[in-house]
Amino acid sequence: MNSVVNATGTIATEDQTGWHTVGEVASLFASRDCMGTVLDGVKVGIFRVDGEFFALDDICTHGAALLSDGFLEGHEVECPLHAGLVDVRTGCALTAPIVRDTRRHQVKVTDGQLLVRLSA
């Protein structure tokens, strides 16, 4: 089992099927609907929209900005660097200057714990 300290200071663990336990949903999203963490060396942004959770690579494909630091409205997150939009459900680039999609990851909640499995 691998582990890493995430952005909230808690330890994220990985099971044998590749699911990382990031932490308790109530703690992770106490103040915002966006949060960032690092899993197996990959920066991951996790977004909560209407009770659903979505995870993407947390680096904007246009610049070196963290999408989890951006403004989330509906299913769109605005990059804090150049204001391009990304759909958090799909990772699709929606507006310039972002023209390349970002990778999305699987998310589930089990017993109040948020889990993420990285895509290949």
From TrEMBL:
Molecular function (GO) terms for this protein are:
2 iron, 2 sulfur cluster binding; dioxygenase activity; metal ion binding
Asked whether the UniProt record includes Nucleus among its keywords, one would answer no
- Record-linked PROSITE patterns: RIESKE (PS51296)
Going by the UniProt record, its keywords in alphabetical order are:
2Fe-2S, Dioxygenase, Iron, Iron-sulfur, Metal-binding, Oxidoreductase
The Rieske domain covers which part of the protein? 19-116
- What Pfam families does the record point to? Rieske
List the protein's name.
Naphthalene 1,2-dioxygenase system ferredoxin subunit
User: What's the source species for this entry?
Assistant: Chitinasiproducens palmae
